[in-house]
Amino acid sequence: MHFSIPDTEEVKEGSVSFTIYNIYINGVFHCKARYKQLRQFHDELRKEFGSLTLPEFPKKKLLALSPAEIEQRRATLERYIQLVSQDPQIGNSSLFNNFLLTAQQESQTEEAERVTLDAFLMNGHKITVNIMSTDQTEDVLEAVAQQIEIPDDFVHYFGLYLVKKEDDGDNSIVRRFQEFESPYLSLKAANKDGVHRIVLRKGYWDSSYDDDLLENKVTMNLLYVQANNDIERQWILATKDQLNHLSNLKKKGSKREFLRLARTLKYYGYMQFKPCVTDYPQPNTRVIVCAGQKELNFRVNIDGQVKEGSFKITRMRCWRITNVQNTDANANSSTSVKSQLELSFEYLMSRDSLQWISITTDQAMLISMCLQNMVDELIMKKQGKKFKKSTDRLKLNKNSGPFKPISRELSYGVDKTSQEPTRKPVIAAPEDQSAITKAMDSVKKMGKGGPKQETLTENDAFEGIGDEDL
Predict the structure, then answer these.
(1) Helices and strands in the chain: count of H runs, count of E runs
(2) Of 266, 263, 271, which Cα lies nearest the Cα of 288?
(3) What range(s) does the PX domain occupy (predicted)?
(4) What's 110's DSSP letter?
(5) Where would I find the beta strands (DSSP E) of 44-91?
């Protein structure tokens, strides 16, 4: 996960002024927090995991901070939460997730109440569930699964995704909902333009897991719906004869046979991203990237011919997300600077040769999460573990915990003209910039000398090349 604190807000409550830090996760606004609340969170982490585990926390100061000191504290807090989140023991703890879930609830001034929530399949079929507005992701997933009678053993083969309807009518996947958030609140914050929805999709990458789901009528139908949609939008490629055969199987209602054929097709089980730009095999190459089956796949047009290359996740030593700035001069000799997100991974090209390969795309965060999920799944499978069941997980307690909830004073904004507190809820996502722009502002900039102080995601599944690979 990529944590960032791209900006701050100054809030005045009566005669007291304080700074609020806006926390983004994977390029999306998540919550607001004061320094003292983050300090309390740090103290609880120190009690739970020991001081030697944690990075240094910015010290408290008695006097009011200058703008330069506030900026320094923002950067230090950002670095702190990035380092803490990278520790698997901390990042997977109920303490960590409870803090983020509670912070999201308090930041949106949302009281827990009974609500209805619509989730969809990729074919548009709607599933309506009754939940609490503050229910965490897996509570909502289990409610959706129960509504359509997915067996308990198979619930966590699936995931909930935030999907956006693009201007061309296509649906693009924005991200997968994480356990530390409430899908209802996240959708509410994202859906001011009414083009976002929650979609149920399978949550694994290795298509061999399909064998488990094909034995149940409900889960088999979910696989069928997704495969059919992926074929229609050409995420899965098929020849004309194969398409005719699939069409005949659909007419007959032979879903199992349809899936057996679909599983033999190219890019089955892959997630395809929007067209973007890569520096491989040469700079400024237009590319279609898709992820699946333990790899990133590139399709590029070279001299009028489409060629493809595959990059195995086991040969990616690490990857990073940076912000690159392109400067273009127009006819009036003025300059225009445009920031873009860039995902770069260090790839083992041969036994003694590592090479950085970069992809410039506003879906860099999503691709990074897909890589991490594929790595986690590969390690899980190697260790002989299985997908968890609903009874295996520890549910977060939203009403109590190892620390006090976020202060209600975060629920109110400030009238900039009068400098007096107003009784308007704070808007969850600032409107002056998009979430992607905020994310780009928060990652480290890449200058002429290369990346500086970037946070690398190390690959725990990285493997060397043996003689049999050469």
Answers:
(1) 12, 21
(2) 271
(3) 1-107
(4) P
(5) none
Torsion of CA 433, 437, 439, 445, to 10 degrees: -130
Residue 82 token pair: 């990035």
> Which residues fall within 8 angstroms of residue 333, CB to CB, at 6 or more apart?
none
Beta 196-202 vs 114-120: how paired, if at all? parallel
Q: Which long-range contacts (CB under 8 A, 24 or more apart) does 168-174 make?
A: 170/233, 171/122, 171/199, 172/274, 172/363, 173/199, 173/201, 173/271, 173/366, 174/28, 174/366
For residue 275, give both structure tokens: 């067209």
Whose CA is closest to 320, among 365, 362, 350, 281?
A: 365
Positions of E strands within 214-334: 271-272, 276-278, 285-292, 295-302, 305-312, 316-329
Evaluate whether 5 touches 77 at the Cβ level (below 8 Å): yes
Work out whether strand 450-451 and strand 446-447 pair parallel, antiparallel, or are unpaired. antiparallel
Name the nearest CA neighbour of 153 among 395, 392, 396, 394. Answer: 392
Nearest CA among 455, 434, 430, 394 for reference residue 21: 430
Element (H, E) at 347: strand 335-350
Q: Say which residue the tokens 């190459």 belong to.
A: 285
Query: pTM for the complete prediction?
Result: 0.79
pLDDT tens, N- to C-terminus, the chain (470 residues) = 788 898 999 888 888 888 999 998 877 788 899 999 999 999 999 999 887 678 889 888 877 888 899 999 999 999 999 888 888 788 888 899 889 988 888 888 777 899 999 999 988 999 999 999 989 999 999 999 999 999 999 999 999 999 988 877 788 898 999 888 999 999 988 887 788 999 999 999 999 999 999 999 999 999 999 999 999 999 999 999 999 999 999 999 999 999 999 999 999 999 999 999 999 989 999 999 999 999 999 999 887 888 999 999 999 999 998 877 665 544 444 444 455 889 999 999 988 899 999 999 989 989 999 999 999 999 999 999 888 877 666 555 544 443 344 443 333 223 333 333 333 333 333 333 444 444 444 343 333 333 334 567 788 888 876 555 54
Cβ–Cβ under 8 Å, residues 440 and 323: yes
Burial class (CB in 10 A: 0-12, 13-18, 19+), 275: exposed
Q: Where are the alpha helices (DSSP H) in 132-179?
A: 137-147
